[in-house]
Amino acid sequence: MSIEMQPLEADKRQVCPEEFSFGATFSDHMFTQEYDQDKGWHNALISPYHALTLDPSAAVFHYSQEIFEGLKAYRTQEGKINLFRPEENCKRFNRSAKRIVMPQVDVNVHLEAIEKLVALDHNWVPDQDGASLYIRPTMIATTPKLGLGASASYCHFIITGPAGTYFAGGLQPISVYVADEYRRAVKGGVGEAKTGGNYAASLYASEEVAKKGYSQVLWLDAIEGRYIEEVGAMNICFVYQGKRIVTPALSGSILPGITRDSILQLAPALGYEVSEERLDVEQILADIECGKITEVFGCGTAAVISPVGTFCFKEKDYIINNNETGEVSKHLYDELTGIQYGTKEDRFGWIKTVEL
Ligand SMILES: *Cc1c(COP(=O)(O)O)cnc(C)c1O
């Protein structure tokens, strides 16, 4: 199947504005394709960014049959545009689709759509330090029917928009509240799928925590309320004595982050030990208090690495590394962003350069 191109005329296209706000500014074009049971995927199209028209009874509005992805395009010093492990996002998209009973997308069409879209809107890839073009693939259930059951038709779309440096003055540690009352996902549920419902389920706790002055929620397992899962839209890593990096093992309710996976592959090559374990929150907090844990950081596409300076659990604050960004966090941040922006060797073959 080929993607039909209906771009704006060249003189109607915009360039990335100097000032934009992440998630609220979108580039000129988008990709869409439709699915129904008779035709399968069809109408693959790149056209100007536009509103979708959906029936109010469309399944996505009622039963949250929806999945999404998040990845970025990075402009290198030579003016090339790099994607970071885009096929991993596509594979995860299809795994999420399977769990939410949605059709699989053709990996080649999905990747081609991303590349064509980014190439067409290359003027939207910002060139400021640490900035990028954020890419948001999504799939929604469109059948206008209130009866329960999987939808018979779907829309797969991809939009993009500029993202600034996540941290204006460099890497800044965040404060994280350990949820003791609310739970995000349970084993057997949909925590491993990148689906909007997980976010709907976590908004209330996020708002409560923000009122207390913390910026993110750390989720514990939903059965015992004891094992560490992940933070907001990031996975979490603990650094022991500056040399061993430990992250919760994928439990079925944790989102398998591509940044997490990249760290597990990259860190050993940089001389760190890594391990995936079941991490008891009480033990972790004790290890922070006695100084065995020297750094904590979240990891995800948005911020890459986000140092954690404070945990609050049951009204008590635990300060990590004097609330400063540690060396391991900085090292991994520099290495990963170096690969993404093409200043460090791509030793794992993670970069796909977009043909312009
Ligand atoms: C997307 C996401 C992550 C991070 O995944 P990356 O692939 O590293 O961006 C972590 N947790 C949740 C809940 C997410 O939605």
Strand content: 25-35%
Please identify the oligomeric state. single chain
Model regions low in confidence, pLDDT < 50 over at least 5 residues: none
How far the N terminus sits from the C terminus, by CA atoms, comes to 21 Å
Summarize the structure.
The chain is an alpha+beta fold. It has helices at 59-63, 86-99, 107-120, 196-211, 258-269, 281-289, 327-340; strands at 4-5, 29-36, 40-48, 66-68, 71-75, 81-84, 132-141, 153-163, 174-178, 216-220, 228-231, 235-240, 244-248, 273-277, 293-300, 304-313, 316-319, 351-353. The protein contains 7 helices and 18 strands.
Describe this structure in words.
The chain has 356 residues and is an alpha+beta fold. The chain has 2 domains: 4-163, Aminotransferase class 4, branched-chain amino acid transferase, N-terminal domain (D-amino Acid Aminotransferase, Chain A, domain 1, 2-Layer Sandwich), CATH 3.30.470; 174-341, D-amino Acid Aminotransferase, Chain A, domain 2 (Alpha-Beta Barrel). Helices cover 24% and strands 30% of the residues. The protein has 7 helices and 18 strands. A hairpin with a 3-residue loop joins strand 15 (293-300) and strand 16 (304-313). It is globular. 40% of the residues are buried. Pyridoxal-5'-phosphate is lined by residues 70, 194, 230, 233-235, 255, 257-260, 300-301.
